[in-house]
Amino acid sequence: MTQITEHKQGELVLRTGALIRPKTLTLGEERYAFAPGAAGVPRADPRQPHLLPSDRLDPRPPIGYQQLGDCAQWTASQAAQASYNRVNNVVIPHDQSPHPGVLYENARKMHGITSSDPDGWFPDDTGSFPADGLDLMLRNGGAYAARSDHRYVADARFDYPNELDSLTTTTRLVAAHRAIYPDQRDALELLCTALEMGFAVMISMMWPRPFFSPDASGALPRGVRYVPQDGAHAVYCWGWKPDTQHLLCQNQYSDGWNPQAARVGWFCRAGDFLVPVEYLSNGTIFELRAVEPIQASPTPEPEPFPQPHGKVFAEAWDSRDSGRTWSLAGSEEVQFSDAPMHAFTLKTETPGDGNVQRGGWYYYKDGNVVPGRGTKSGKPARRHRG
């Protein structure tokens, strides 16, 4: 198990805590590798920039502050939120995103409780597997406890209330997560393709002590080698900057860490940082994971106003008051009042043969025309003849 390291920087306490989940824990892991070509998705060109944020939409959540070895679950929550926002062109309320503390508790409990299992993890601050948090979000149809359900508690021993496991938000975020292994020759191309598809990419990497202090350009220093005593960390990648060969990533060490990143441009904020691409190929990064979000169902278009052939006449009544009636003049276009709900029938007269056809019952409600079967009571409505 990778050691969790701690580093104090000003008033911040910076911690690591990402672990390598053995492939044996995921049946058929290779079958779930990120393979866009199989879905007919063209490969992205690493010579071009690829970014989740744009001038029109920034799908990324705010910079957070992990205070335990729960970086993997902070990252799982943030990557799921960024992917969902980007693909669905929305920004869900941040307090409705997955609760990293609850994810961390349950990700450790998946591997046993220390008091009953010598190999158990909870309540120790052991770190966790990034993929476990995503798996938790896939359970129960994607239900999860949200940040708004309970405050974040910076105590690894804290056992969140059991009822949080059944609390759900109305938004399901994760559809799947697909591994990209850095030893693949096309790993960078696959990462860029995932970004182009709108998928945030989780990064699990070794975190040598110099990485706690990025350089003046907001980037991790180059040429750093890790040693066994170093911890591992999880972050997510939201962009690729080809001119300087950097991955653009969000950390959760607060916006008081690496404030110089805000001077980089490219949508970088204080608390973001840049990763030299060399760490993708030299073993420092040990796993990438593309987070595929659920695509929300689009709002259905209202039924179009019926357009029968010939001249249109309307007979109408006020469905709010059976004692009142009103009529609409026959015309090629029927105009309606601002009343919240009216019902009417349509008749068409085919030019030349005098054949009149009745078009059925319709309701006019909130600006839309919808079919109906009578009044609110279900009884046939009284039509106005005058």
Structure report:
With 386 residues, the protein is an alpha+beta fold. It has two domains: 46-54 and 64-293, Cathepsin B, Chain A (Alpha-Beta Complex); 311-371. The chain has five helices and 13 strands. Strands 3, 4, 5, 6, 7, 8 and 9 form a seven-stranded antiparallel sheet that branches. Strand 6 and strand 7 form a beta hairpin. The protein is globular.
By CATH, the topology of the largest domain is Cathepsin B, Chain A
What oligomeric state do these chains adopt? single chain
The CATH architecture of the largest domain is: Alpha-Beta Complex
Low-confidence blocks of residues: 305-386
Query: What is the CATH superfamily classification of the largest domain?
Result: Cysteine proteinases
Roughly how many Å apart are the termini? Answer: 85 Å
**Main beta sheet:** 7 strands, antiparallel
Mean pLDDT: 77
* Number of E-type strands: 13
How much of the polypeptide forms β-strand, as a percent range? Answer: 15-25%
Q: Structural class, from secondary structure content?
A: alpha+beta
Order of helices and strands: EEEHHHEHEEEEHEEEEE
Give the class-level CATH name of the largest domain: Alpha Beta
Radius of gyration: 29 Å
Binned, the helix content reads 10-25%
The shape, in one word, is globular
